[in-house]
Amino acid sequence: MSDSPRYFNDCDALVDAILQQLGNRVVLGLPLGLGKANHLINALYRRACADPGISLSILTALTLERPHAGSELEKRFLDPISARLFDDYPALEYARAVRSGELPDNIVVKDFFLQSGQWLGFPLAQQNHASINYTHALNELLDSGVNLILQLIAPQHSDYSGPEPRFSLGCNPDISADLLDRRRQDSLPILSVAQVNSRLPFMAGAADRPDSDFDMILQEPGYEFELFMPPNKPTSATDHAIGLEVANLIEDGGSLQIGIGSIGDAITHSLVLRHQQNALYKDLLDRLGSQRPTRSAAQCEPFTQGLYGVTEMLVEGFLEMITTGIMTREVDGAVVHAGFFVGSPTFYQRLADMPAATRNKIAMMPVSFTNDLYGDEQRKRKARTAARFVNSAMMVTLGGAVISDGLADYQVVSGVGGQYNFIAQAFALEDGRSIITLPSTRTRKGIRQSNIVWDYAHITIPRHLRDIVVTEYGAADLRGKTDAEVINALLAITDSAFQPQLLEQAKKAGKVSADYEIAPAHRNNTPERIHQALQPARDTGQLPDFPLGSGLTREEEHLAVALSRLSSLAGNKRALLPIIAAGLKRRPGPTTLACLERMQLAQPRGFAERLYRALLLGTLETQRA
């Protein structure tokens, strides 16, 4: 550790300096997601590949990769988007080796959070996943003997000027801020190396660091690259129904955490409607059905005190709530404290367009601050009033257990991340609540399956931490309830196609009375009812497919919605044949024709392209009907 860093303009020269100092045993800690110094990582990885005498252990999370196409239609859709958004993002070579199963014996990659669904069926990734709470990752790094960190940093000034140079960890102070502090306080033998990228936003809070925090810095414009920016996914009617319900659970003057994804986007949109178009918000809530035990008239009103954001991930919705005057309650000069971010092109544009004074009210902090109450606990408790921690799940059992990160055969979908942290925090705070959101069903190969299940062989959050669960059919308040009450409440927000079977299982197990019946008000939980309630607002654009923007062209937005629907039907010929038949009969309108041209299917050649055209045309025209 030195008072000022050594600056380099060449990756290989910097790797030489690293190995000269550390020798041939390198235990490399990398930030989760966006904050990785890709060029340096690749240079060090290549050096270890070339020299089997180097032992390289990589400890990381959320290794970002450009999307992989699962079908010919997806390939036609994704290839131009990937070229536009990801060609300037350096692919991480260790990830390619893990995917192909060709990682050299002297290199190990250990990941505690996987890009959702992208590593199913890949043995090396599955075998080397570590199930770790986000707040425990720092200790795991230290216990593993980490001796090198490589971090992407943002310069305070684009020309690197200033008498006392400062850099920002930008998107990732999540673990690095604490690690750098511990390194300085305890004189830990960890080499701190960074790569400058002026395209990374300079963020305030614990992310703002002196240059003395770094031993070596790669500072060369030729190594700067575009940030990873996946487009937003479309928001469905189901997502919007969930968003409308959740928005009614958020107290004015309270604290808020939201996870990433289309449901999070829908929640933000509903909160904006509640604040800016209050009559419309109340009308939409009424259309969904007003007889809900969790409904609050007070929590339908606009925000006068404002919200404070305390979140692991700075999602795009928080930026929207700042600009629309919802997120205004300040804590220590900040309206949001967040641990990391990665977002769509519109996310980065929003950050860039914010006045500096506004952006500085977003304080990027370690997850030890956001995810835990430890450390200045009384101050945190005072700040985190009426906290609502909103996270998504894949399934919920009728006992109230949550499945969000893996499958019954132990295949890991993503990881627990900070979900447990926030649920535990909700119970620790006097008026905090955990809210788990999920669609009541999923469709695979054209067959609908319930996401409310009797039991499941994998659990992420145990049932004794059950709190509030929200589907498109309403909210179930489970905290402190008996098993019978929990089952009854979850059945009330289950799709009606699956209520009889689940109720019968509960009766057979003796968990509800033999004569119990689901209330008539909850026996019409059908997609058709949600469609009828919300489609008028969908048609007028009041509940849009991309409420926060997308990063896609107009044609690509239409295609994204269509391909999402087709993906759920893939493999089911009975479901696909009517779509193909409709596509063969229809003539495309101007919008659909533009979509077909984007997919190079306006003038199909051969049987396969005619089939793809019919599939797409049938789906697109049905969307517009």
Automatic annotation (TrEMBL):
InterPro entries to which the protein is assigned, alphabetical: AcetylCoA_hyd_C, AcetylCoA_hyd_C_sf, ActCoA_hydro, NagB/RpiA_transferase-like
Domain named Acetyl-CoA hydrolase/transferase C-terminal: residues: 343-506
Keyword annotations from UniProtKB, A to Z: Hydrolase
GO terms of biological process kind: acetate metabolic process
Domain of life: Bacteria
One Gene Ontology molecular-function label: acetate CoA-transferase activity
Annotated protein name in UniProt: Acyl-CoA hydrolase
Organism: Halopseudomonas salegens
